[in-house]
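[job 4471] stage=fold_predict status=RUNNING
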Amino acid sequence: MRGTWVLLTGILLTTLVLFPVLPVQAEEELCCPVNEDIERTLYPANPPLQGEDVKNLQAELKALNYYDGPINGVYGVLTQQAVLKYQRNQQLKEDGIVTWQVWHSLAKNLEQPVAKTNQLPPPTGELAIIVDTTKRKLTVLADGKPYKQFNVACGKPSTPSPVGTWKVVHKATNWGTGFGSRWLGLNVPWGKYGIHGTNKPFSIGSYASHGCIRMHNSSVEQLYSWIPKGTPVYIIGSPFGVPGQGHKRLVRGDRGSDVFEVQRTLKRLGYYDANIDGIFGYGLETAIKKFRKANGLPMDNCVDRKMYEALGL
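[job 4471] inference complete, writing structure tokens
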């Protein structure tokens, strides 16, 4: 255990060097809902609705012993009957329509066996949060020592979580319809990201989100009561996304930790003099052209495999 924390401390120090703490942005910039986890409303239709959300619904109903059909992602008669039975037993409107209220009710019932946590007194001292995207773990530190660890879901390969050093700048309860019961917003400059609850409890422990850090509602409620605004949040892992997925080809308009790291590297090498904000704009495009010309790369305005290699990334 001690060896693990020595290694983690080393990773954290590296993160601090690569991604220094950004100044806290104005709260208003981060307090508007985004479409990160908003559920689609499911309803009886002909032809029937299909998709991953229907599979999630079937899996959750099966776990609660309301559904014994196939997990096929088709909102057919068997699934509709299971929804009606669930709505009846939960004293919800019995119409076969799966709204966010139904999703939230399912999550609440599913969490009781899988996310029950021992209640701890609030941690004291200087607090910080480390999110390890490779292990999908969130750890609360009190005076530099681990106090409590939670399982989380992180960003999918196509929408990775923002690796770097951030701060909690916004807190809200029941913020939007797809973010569970609590929201802690972060000052990530290229988009709206946060630590929040979820109405998809089966996703915890996986790469499933659009970049936010998902927790069981019972876990995020405990975290929310401990963490004040201004608490540092260190999201560690590869700035280029989920391990093993390769580096994305970057073009103008892209945003993310990978753009942030390219900006940081080009600035260190003297090619980039604009803000390091994770947003691929005109300034970065100009720097890329200069770097490619100086290093004998084919003239282009993108970051491709050859440029990653030339940058040492």
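[job 4471] summary: The beta strands are 127-132, 137-142, 145-151, 154-155, 164-173, 182-186, 193-196, 207-209, 213-214, 232-236.
[job 4471] exit 0
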